[in-house]
Amino acid sequence: MKKIKAARRKVREPRFCFKTLSDVDVLDDGYKWRKYGQKVVKNTQHPRSYYRCTQDNCRVKKRVERLAEDPRMVITTYEGRHVHTPSQDEDDSSSSQLNNFFW
């Protein structure tokens, strides 16, 4: 009699993608990020950067890249949900509104 191995599937975290016109690659969203990688992307001269949230026990990842057709356009993809509130380093009201959007 053969033992049947149970197939383990990785649970995929929810993803959120935003397109923004910007000269800077990394936009301030209220959270603190650590860059852990960079990759060359086909058909574009701009690399893709990978970030992780610096908070303990938070597994959220962020991917930042420029659109090949329009290099002014920044595509930011978030994977997962934060298990904590955003950093309170800034007193800017526009950043706090953005923080409420992500939380």
UniProtKB/TrEMBL annotation:
Short name of any one Pfam family annotated for the protein: WRKY
SUPFAM superfamilies noted in UniProt: WRKY DNA-binding domain
Any GO MF annotation of the entry: DNA-binding transcription factor activity
Coiled coil: none
Highest rank taxon of the organism: Eukaryota
Disordered: annotated segments: 79-103
Transmembrane segments: none
Subcellular location: Nucleus
Annotated ranges, domain WRKY: 27-86
The protein, known as: WRKY domain-containing protein
Organism for this UniProt entry: Daucus carota subsp. sativus (Carrot)
